[in-house]
Input
Amino acid sequence: FGRDMLARIIHGSRRSLSLGVGTTAVSLLLGGIIGACCGIYGSRFDSIVMRLCDVLNCVPGLLFALAVVAALGSSMRNLLIAVTIVSLPGFIRIVRSVILSIVEQEYIMAARACDSSNFTIIMRHILPNAMGPIIIQASMSVASMMLTAAGLSFIGMGVQPPTPEWGAMLSGGREFIRDYGYLTLFPGLAIMITVLVFNLMGDGLRDALDPKLKQ
Output
């Protein structure tokens, strides 16, 4: 069609990155709130949420996202919803585990002894000390969310052509891979390099924020 490959990859990066970063941000917000409530209040609410997470984890993530997109229709918004739902259980679990390890610390008990409200304890003491593992999980989740979104677009259940998106560009170029291999080579390289960058960034953040690795 006479389209410029470099321009389409650059424009496609906006959608691919927005899918990865957007779904991670929404999942982090919702999963952080739900996981914090589970870790702080516990009891029956914690049990119900954990059992729901167990049910969601029993279904492969890509298959579950595919079912959501098939039910809602192929569009950018529905793709965001599907990938967000898939990534929620992981954020809920990690936030809950971090909160549970923090609420037993002596400074939390001291804050409660000083009659501080739950909101003050959460905002001033729990969240600042829990941000390290959460940020690491978020940075590495961006890469997996991008791969999931690209996979759904590749099979025609995500961003629809001719809208430039790396997964959709891979799908559109596979018919011509024998004669025009660059149509799939460059979108594939873009996905690979971006995912590698986010994974390396997650490893770097883990090394920088984990106090055990500094000793």
Notes: DSSP finds nine helices and no strands in the chain. The radius of gyration is 20 Å.
